[in-house]
Design goal:
Elements (H helix, E strand, L loop, with lengths): L1 E11 L2 E14 L2 E10 L4 E10 L2 E13 L2 E12 L2 E7 L4 E6 L4 E3 L7 H10 L3 E7 L13 E18 L2 E11 L8 E5 L4 E9 L2 E11 L3
Parallel strand pairs: 9-10
Antiparallel strand pairs: 1-2, 1-15, 2-3, 3-4, 4-5, 5-6, 6-7, 7-8, 10-11, 11-12, 12-13, 13-14, 14-15
Length: about 220
């Protein structure tokens, strides 16, 4: 059994953006359990993701999205269940539950949080560097009818070079990747350590907006 944890902090144009993700990963003889929570304080949104993987394949992934509004909280949850290559999605918006099914094959599932990024990039590289990626939708909170529903995009990942980054005062070996597709233009850089954990990424969203995410409080097996 092994355990790892850390915190991702977001920076926009060099300034702290008030967005933080905490995460924990537990590897046992029966599989991997990951729990991550994103606090987007400027917009009053909290997102939690809990997943179970066995032999490198997702078995289930539960998502809970909550936004604090003037007249009370808005909450939506989704349960992604994987079985024999198929996928069934249950979305509950507080009033009704909607069931969606998809039997697509040969795609990569990306459950929003940064702790999953390393696995996504490594899977795309194993597929030849390009493939369909499924991401639960959260782009526009006003599109409540689309929140946490599946969103597809063609994406590419390219391993560039082995390097090292300093995290919590430690120099950690990692691989630098170019990741593009969806909201990411070519030139977006990600650094993944030897255990598949994202250490940092840099994304030029548009001509005026540059994002950087960095890992801290990183604990991992020796």
């Amino acid at each position: 059994m092994s355990h790892s944890r850390g915190i991702y902090s977001y920076f926009c144009n060099g300034e702290a953006a008030g967005i933080e993700e905490t995460w924990e990963c537990e590897d046992t003889s029966s599989g991997r359990c990951i729990s991550s929570v994103r606090y987007a304080r400027p917009v009053g949104i909290v997102l939690r993701v809990d997943s179970i993987e066995t032999a490198g394949k997702f078995q289930s992934c539960k998502l809970h999205w909550r936004r604090q509004l003037a007249d009370g909280p808005q909450e939506i949850s989704a349960d992604y269940r994987f079985d024999n290559g198929g996928l069934t999605i249950f979305v509950h918006d507080g009033q009704q539950e909607v069931t969606l099914q998809d039997a697509s094959e040969n795609y990569v599932f990306s459950p929003l949080m940064r702790i999953y990024t390393g696995g996504v990039l490594q899977q795309l590289c194993a597929m030849g560097g390009s493939g369909q990626v499924l991401v639960p939708y959260i782009v526009d909170p006003e599109q409540s009818g689309q929140l946490l529903r599946p969103s597809w995009s063609q994406r590419e990942a390219l391993a560039l070079a082995e390097t090292s980054l300093e995290v919590d005062g430690r120099s950690l070996a990692c691989m630098e990747y170019d990741y593009s597709g969806g909201e990411y233009p070519s030139g977006t850089r990600f650094w993944i350590d030897e255990q598949g954990v994202l250490l940092r990424y840099c994304w030029q969203q548009d001509s005026h907006t540059h994002w950087e995410v960095m890992l801290s409080d990183y604990e991992r097996p020796a």
